[in-house]
Specification:
The complex is a heterodimer of chains A (about 325) and B (about 300). Chain A is an all-alpha fold and about 325 residues long. Chain A has helices at about 1-20, 30-50, 60-80, 85-105, 110-130, 130-135, 155-175, 180-190, 190-195, 200-230, 240-250, 255-275, 280-295, and strands at about 140, 145-150, 150, 230. Chain A has one domain. In chain A, helix 3 (about 60-80) packs parallel to helix 5 and helix 3 crosses helix 10. By secondary structure, chain B is mainly alpha-helical. Chain B is built from twelve helices and two strands; from the N terminus they run αααααββααααααα. The chains are: A mainly alpha (about 325), B mainly alpha (about 300).
Amino acid sequence: MTTRTRTVALLLIVALVLLVGLPLLLPEWIIFLLTVASAKALAVLGVVLLLRGKLLTFGHALYYAAGAYAGGMAVRYWGVHEALVLLALALVAGVAVSAILGLLVARYRAVYFALLNLAFSMVLYGMLLKLYDVFGGTDGIGIAEPTLAGFRLSGLAMYELTIVITALLVYLTHRFFVSPLGYTLRAIRDNEVRVEYMGVSVWRAVYVSYIIAGALAAVSGGLIALAVGHITPDLAFWSQSGEFVFVAILGGTGSVLAPVVGSVLFEFVRNYAFKLSPYTWQMTLGIVLLLIIFFLPGGVWSLTARLPRRSHR
Amino acid sequence: MRLLLVVGLDGLTYASWLFLVSAGLTFTYGVLRVLNLAHGNLYALGAYLGATLVLHYAATGSTPALTYALLLIAALVIGAVVGPLIERFFLRRVYSRDEEVQLLLTFSISLILEDVVKLVWGVTPIFADLPYTYLGRVRLGGVNYAWYPFLLAAIALAIGGLLWLVVTRTRLGKILTSVISDREVSLTLGINVPRVYTLAFTAGAVLAALGGALTAPMFSLVPGVGADVLVTSFAVIAIGGLGSIGGAALGSLLVGMARSFAVYKFPELDLFVIYLIMALVLLFRPQGFFGEIEVRRI
């Protein structure tokens, strides 16, 4: 297990170096695209984390939007511009909301779990849309010029901040996967009743996982708010949740890095496909999802298992 | 007093609508144990086809009385074509796989149908209110109310009664009950389970499309209603218990009345009332009013 941990750590360092080195080579729009992709990867990571416990959610955009709006509200009402403070607020909001809703949702599995999350996310969407005086309705909230330790964040600095935070959280999530609780979650996937028989609390494992997944999505939303500079209720819409699920399945649940790979792939493909034909975008997603379900159940990441390996197995 | 009457009538209208859209969802789930996430899209397809037929028919200037048949035909066509297509070619391949895979599959179909509607009918709103206006209005205790909602309520009642009759009083109902309680034993009894599945899924699809077609005359159609319909009807059947027709009826009445009350008293809250009731019911009765507790296999 330690070699495995070391491999992942090494991979992350390599990725970090590459990604901080990349801006020298790539044009600005790709850097922005990578910022968005790596920020969103965290929300996808939350979905993947839950999927490891066989929990499918169609409402994870709830926490994504909660994080983004926590940041947005702080900008709007308190005039906070410090990026790390805004992200911390996003994290707190995500943890708070998931800790409350988790009390109800963590009792459920399968269909109920998926749809209860969807229902709550639609409630938030409705609130963001209707309570115009508080949340700005469809106009959304502008987040002007975030700063880091007092310095204005340029596009490049935002990119680097995002990469660092993503890498950190991806690593922490990996540590969670190999922790006792992470293994409990995987055991729940296989057989929940037997886990209970071993004297382990299934409810606690699901509840904690739910909060972690919510926190990841909230930070993801906070990063997006900072990077894009404008937030709208669409962040909480079901199609956003669906997108997270799609990317999670596209990447696969085999590794913490799969969501990152899936997310980057997704943003690039969307960038081109959306320009080509906006009315068939969802149809394209649907067809690709069908193909993955039938022909590549492990997602894109499972292709790496077919590569020749020198070390373990 | 008059307000109470209006609230009651609006609640009844909304409850009928809720029952029409959620009965199919809960029925399909009851038999197949698959929640059809494309349910809302079938609703949208039914609504769009119904509206299109009505508009074309209205252009000929013939008697509007036949438009009701057109709405029914639209629902039957959508349900009987798209329903078996989804079940036979896609759903059938994933019955043996995890429940999440089945959800993902219906989700992909919902994504595809979402764009089919946009491609065929465009994004401009469509409004075909001929069946609504043709019935005229009625004065009831000093309240001026349209007749059409009463037709809707009558149809909802008829559908509920029909489902109840089929399940409890016919040979097909016995077969359905047998398949619901044990799929494998039903197979050994010589029941053609795959056909029952196709039939049940198609019935659910027809009900979804019928809900859409009957709503088309009341509101203008815009793309993207699918998700709202799905989530609302899920809330209703979660309250009543997944798979229970009676539960769907009770859930519809509860949500319909509560929401209609909220619209008049606390208009900002109308959306949340549904989910508030759902959360309350689920807190105290996690399986809903008439839901069964699933036996977890060791």
